[in-house]
Write a structure and sequence with these properties.
homodimer, Nucleotidyltransferase, domain 5, 2 domains, 7-stranded mixed β-sheet, 17 helices, gluconokinase activity (chains A, B)
Amino acid sequence: MDYILGIDIGTTATKGILYDENAQVEGQASKSYPLIQDQNGKAVEDPEVIFSAVQDVIFKLSQNGSKNIKAISWSAQMHSLIGLDKNKQLLTNSITWADNRSQKVVQEAKNSNLADQVYSQTGMPPHAMAPIYKLMWLKNEHPQLFEQANYWIGIKEYVVYRLTNKLMTDTTMAAGTGLFNLKTQQWDSDMLEKAEIKKKQLPEVAAPTMIVGNVLPYYAQKLGLQTDTKVILGASDGYSSTIGVNVLNNENFAINVGTSAAIRVIAPYLIKDAYKRVFCYPVDHTHYLVGGPINNGGIVLQWAKNALLGSDATFEDYLTLAAVASVGSKGLLFYPYLGGERAPIWNSEASGSFVGLTRQHQKAELARAVIEGLILNMKMAAEGLLDNVGKPRCLKLTGGFTKSNFICQLIADIFNLPTVKVKQKQSGAFAAMFLARQALGKSETLNDIKDFAGDEKIYFPNEINALKYQKIFTLYKQIEHDLEKNYHALARLKNELSDSIQ
Amino acid sequence: MDYILGIDIGTTATKGILYDENAQVEGQASKSYPLIQDQNGKAVEDPEVIFSAVQDVIFKLSQNGSKNIKAISWSAQMHSLIGLDKNKQLLTNSITWADNRSQKVVQEAKNSNLADQVYSQTGMPPHAMAPIYKLMWLKNEHPQLFEQANYWIGIKEYVVYRLTNKLMTDTTMAAGTGLFNLKTQQWDSDMLEKAEIKKKQLPEVAAPTMIVGNVLPYYAQKLGLQTDTKVILGASDGYSSTIGVNVLNNENFAINVGTSAAIRVIAPYLIKDAYKRVFCYPVDHTHYLVGGPINNGGIVLQWAKNALLGSDATFEDYLTLAAVASVGSKGLLFYPYLGGERAPIWNSEASGSFVGLTRQHQKAELARAVIEGLILNMKMAAEGLLDNVGKPRCLKLTGGFTKSNFICQLIADIFNLPTVKVKQKQSGAFAAMFLARQALGKSETLNDIKDFAGDEKIYFPNEINALKYQKIFTLYKQIEHDLEKNYHALARLKNELSDSIQ
């Protein structure tokens, strides 16, 4: 039997899944690595450490020599930036999406018309995660390094390069750079000029189903692969976790809640949101990935569990406690912006709040309000989609949050939409595998993904609760608006306090 | 030796202290009673239960037959309202300061010019605690009861009446009704008209040092008193806990933090604050008690301990944890309005908030932010005083908060003022005793109270921390202003959610 390896290069770990030719899972492996955050705003990773993790995962899954692995394909974190010298040797770490150091550049871009232009030509909202702003920041802060760099790529491109010797990227990854034109679907010459780089410094762009080539003989032998194992170009995790839940058009919304979260849809036309609430990344000329990336997902639940119950408590404990409180947590509202926020408010200085506290609020209400706040914030992010592509038939849900029936039901109630927990838990790796199936000719069109991506359970909204959450949602947005004015001053205060501590 | 019994009739308990003629404590007793809150906004007490608690306390402290108790004197909760029929029998419970049911009447008074008039003529800020608004509410909601009532008094008047058969009140208690004219220091005929009552329905007013008379023989025998034990009129707890810490003028501010809190000063002239932030209650024609009563004191710490650590934890545990966090709790702000608020924001619909949360904030920061928030709110309340009487030399501190050196130091740092913990823990009962000393001719003037009211410890502000708290305070006020707009909508949401639960 033939096998395909789908690999998801995430921010904290690389996960690989070995699928047989019927898309059945044959094996799983993962390897985690550190996000280096040794100074304020910095969030980088060592590309060598990640490439080594990728090799670990491949080696573990190819161990059984009888496995005939036909292809390796990818789903990867977006927006990373790596500089290579003229010999394609590493000059920098991988500056991840979580790195905020180009914040000042973004602020300037907002004050000039640059941010508008970037959004309008590339679909990239004004945010420090975008490589275009990181390049400008590097040019200002590290001009010598900037000059030395002959090539600018991301982490998936680095891994693919190491395995094949080819510098290539796919449309869905290129789309997340702020340098790729929405309409022409080529590198945008205006943007290259702004970033002061040349087209030849960037990888060649192709479709996610592109076969890059055979894995290099050295790695084939080292990792226990066949000499004709193909490396497929693969896609961004944003795209793959959307098609991986069988969201191929604008009929349904895909929601993924892991450490962070995202809400996405595939639109048949390009979208420019008047308020820049959503990104719009081209896939091809009739498919655009539109959505909102949300910083504050499961990572906030982790925080709340530790802060309210202590690190010894389990998530089970936390959810059991939260379920004790009533719908709406007795009017307690929680804003989850513990790590700034991208969609829906696009404010890296945002911080979190509990608002509406009374003596009636005990630990159970605090715990439930956190979960409700996370979902209300996702609903705010969904409004940018709703306004542009209309109301979906249902939500397709993946990620850690799906482990809890309580949370799935809350999502259905708060969104007031049927919410489907899908079978595929690792939609990114699953979609990567499917892209390889297409590349190898084992599946004809993307629509065939539905044969493998099934639904596990549907949660219908409870009418009475949905009505309550509608009232809460209106007030939730209004109060966020009032809090928003103070995020900058709060961030400055925190800096002043922490400076004086050191 | 002669003895004097100082009795403090509080909201949750009556405490008595037996003093010898040198003001040394000879014995203490207390008896608690329930605040009946069986419906939204209601907070009443049974006058008979309180009178019975007062008798318990007297009986316990007079047990030793050798004690020659010369006088009993009072410090009592303000703003309570009790209706008596023509035979001076109880028609109502005691509607306490915590009862919010006349809120709607207050709102109407704010919309018309009545609230201005009440404040201007009586010094009573617009709040549901004021008997004038309670009378209007009763007239609307319970017209029959209102008609039946021949007398309107408060809880101290009821206790004194039961012990002496005389219906009398003192200036400092009358001042808290909203019916007592600031200038004439007589019942205000305009206000009586507004409340639709007659002067003869109210008790006669005299000075706190007035000897009402001997205790009735029945109670003298029952409670183990002498037949010539005098009942002194006494004063409001607001006044007595101010003079009880030797704050007799506007040189120092008195801060008391128990379940609730208050900041007070004695001004030599009457004060009308442009923003109605402070009450101004006459004592006599050269002394006015000016200050802000604050709902959210120790009761919020109790809540935070239970909500964050659980009801098994002690305050020691809580304070130890809070002390781990750094000055300013890493920029986390807490607004303590868990039970609405009187001074400084005078908004009974206010609710609490944590603002500025990041993942750096763990339980220790939450715990410290609560204490800092309580004190920052007191500082906001103090601004109403500062603007009218100038900066004090120091703060004189009493109440439960003084048990913690950590909290005392925080008060000094946040106020940026020397803060004196006074020796007298029960400043109310102590002042009541002193008023009796004056009545009996054992002390000549109020100034002699300094002979007994000493300082225990002085906390000087830490300059560096004070500077940080000044920055925090500016932002703290600004954000409160933005939150304030939403208190009404939040209160309405809570009502809607709780209605639908029932």
